[in-house]
Design the sequence.
């Protein structure tokens, strides 16, 4: 194979193609599929990936607001093109008990997953990030599905500029990724969007979040007195969304902590006493 400057000709062509594609996405806006939509007002939740950085932020918290970053679904395209939305939130009203619960429960989730996978994958499971969804206190997971945004008005909120043709505008739908893209969940999201409560947030002043372009550096405010947290293992998320028998997650708030399991027909919610959470993976449903 012919080489140019020590690289294969094929590799050079491939690199050239990637560069041209990125240029078109960023500057010519020719393909809106290369981009991400982060948190938008009207979404049912604010999603965080509790990775090492998030654990560090939790562990170092002393008092006052806490900053957390939005975690888009893994199916989202790289943020090379037109993106939108808020990439971070400021949690207000945190106390030591809540932060301690979040730290201990995310650690337990990793341990439980590790025990189920066996020694070979245990270390990877413990290093893996954990899903954390912040919901309005009125959100009922017995009625609505976890992991769905339930926001059908997001597209009409955007202010489309002169560079956006109708064809490109239609491609916005490919950016607004749910955590489950199955036909059943898409229909569920659409059918109940006007019934599901939105997560209450405080918008930063003088920020036009409706404008397409880059993700917003300003943070939305979330009062932890008005919300609760759903902590889910990565390997368990699809089963939780689709309500598979044996699916489980933790619910955490300022007033307590619970383990929630699906018995095949309904969610069973068991309160966990302070300082004690399930440590034996065998106690979880199979």
Sequence:
């Amino acid at each position: 194979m012919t080489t140019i400057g020590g690289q294969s000709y094929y590799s050079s062509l491939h690199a050239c193609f990637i560069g041209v594609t990125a240029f078109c996405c960023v500057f010519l806006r020719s393909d809106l599929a290369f981009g991400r939509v982060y948190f938008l007002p009207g979404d049912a939740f604010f999603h965080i990936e509790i990775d090492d950085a998030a654990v560090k932020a939790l562990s170092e918290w002393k008092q006052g607001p806490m900053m957390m970053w939005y975690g888009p679904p893994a199916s989202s395209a790289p943020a090379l093109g037109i993106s939108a939305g808020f990439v971070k939130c400021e949690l207000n009203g945190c106390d030591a008990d809540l932060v301690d619960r979040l730290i201990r429960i995310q650690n337990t989730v990793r341990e439980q997953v590790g025990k189920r996978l066996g020694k070979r994958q245990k270390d990877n499971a413990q290093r893996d990030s954990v899903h954390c969804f912040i919901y309005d206190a009125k959100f009922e997971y017995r009625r609505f599905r976890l992991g769905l945004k339930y926001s059908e008005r997001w597209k009409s909120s955007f202010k489309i500029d002169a560079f956006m043709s109708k064809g490109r505008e239609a491609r916005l739908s490919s950016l607004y990724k749910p955590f489950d893209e199955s036909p059943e969940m898409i229909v569920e999201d659409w059918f109940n969007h006007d019934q599901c409560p939105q997560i209450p947030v405080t918008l930063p002043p003088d920020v036009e979040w409706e404008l397409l372009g880059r993700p917003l550096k300003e943070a939305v405010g979330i009062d932890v007195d008005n919300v609760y947290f759903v902590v889910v293992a990565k390997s368990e998320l699809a089963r939780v969304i689709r309500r598979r028998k044996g699916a489980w997650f933790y619910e955490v708030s300022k007033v307590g902590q619970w383990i929630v399991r699906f018995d095949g027909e309904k969610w069973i919610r068991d309160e966990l006493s302070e300082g004690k959470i399930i440590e034996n993976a065998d106690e979880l449903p199979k």
